[in-house]
């Protein structure tokens, strides 16, 4: 049995305003007031765990420790079977440059690695999202969402973000980068994780 969230204030442990706004809309029916790391002047903690759930816990628990508020954090990435599960928790790291994140560069690098390995087709992959809700007493709940698909080339579409233009979900002929955000948000790994979070901790 998961623990129900009984409070009215929740900290979303992120500096990403898009994530904050998306979650605020989803939790509004439950009377939850959401703030972010930015509102509290919190830094990003070092993500040192080898798993999505481990790094989501680091972010959530750092926010709880700093503020005394319950906190929600996520960690997500793409797992590519032909690259032995890479980039996984290092998905954003593969896009880092001195001038900021460059995902077209990261996607090009990813495809070239698959080519170099002569990875068989279809080049299967999955997007993963883990949400962790942590309370000040040390209790936490974790929820994972995934979406299965394959890596395609060349890049297709300018919607979404990250690796979306080279990820085609199972059952579709378009990439996440070609989908409008409403269709993507209905099937995405984050949508699956959020649905489990709401059912587990907020739905009465």
Description:
- This protein has 6 helices and 8 strands, in the order βαβααβββαβββαα.
- It is globular.
- 37% of the residues are buried.
- The mean pLDDT is 94.
Task: Describe the SSE topology.
Layout: E1 9-12, H1 17-27, E2 33-36, H2 37-40, H3 52-67, E3 71-80, E4 96-97, E5 100-101, H4 103-116, E6 123-134, E7 140-151, E8 167-169, H5 181-187, H6 189-202
Parallel strand pairs: 1-2, 1-3
Antiparallel strand pairs: 3-6, 4-5, 6-7, 7-8
Widest sheet, order of strands: 2-1-3-6-7-8
Question: How much helix, percentage-wise, in residues?
Answer: 25-40%
- In percent, how much strand structure appears in the residues? 15-25%
Shape: globular
Features:
204 residues; alpha/beta; 6-stranded mixed sheet; two-stranded antiparallel ribbon; 6 helices; 32% helix
Q: What is this entry, summarized?
A:
This protein has 204 residues and is α/β, with parallel strands linked by helices. The protein has helices spanning 17-27, 37-40, 52-67, 103-116, 181-187, 189-202; strands spanning 9-12, 33-36, 71-80, 96-97, 100-101, 123-134, 140-151, 167-169.
């Amino acid at each position: 049995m998961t623990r129900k969230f009984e409070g009215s204030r929740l900290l979303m442990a992120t500096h990403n305003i898009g994530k904050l706004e998306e979650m605020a809309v989803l939790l509004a029916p439950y009377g939850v007031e959401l703030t972010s790391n930015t509102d509290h002047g919190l830094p990003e903690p070092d993500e040192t765990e080898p798993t999505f759930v481990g790094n989501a816990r680091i972010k959530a628990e750092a926010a709880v420790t700093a503020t005394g508020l319950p906190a929600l954090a996520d960690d997500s990435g793409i797992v590519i079977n032909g690259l032995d599960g890479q980039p996984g928790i290092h998905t954003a790291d593969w896009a880092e440059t001195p001038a900021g994140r460059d995902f077209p560069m990261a996607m090009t690098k990813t495809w070239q690695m698959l080519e170099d390995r002569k990875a068989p087709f279809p080049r299967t992959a999955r997007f993963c999202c883990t949400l962790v809700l942590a309370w000040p007493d040390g209790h936490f709940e974790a929820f994972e969402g995934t979406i299965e698909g394959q890596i395609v080339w060349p890049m297709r579409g300018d919607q979404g973000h990250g690796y979306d233009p080279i990820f085609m979900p199972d059952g579709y002929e378009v990439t996440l980068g070609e989908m409008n955000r409403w269709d993507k948000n209905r099937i995405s790994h984050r949508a699956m994780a959020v649905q489990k979070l709401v059912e587990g901790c907020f739905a009465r």
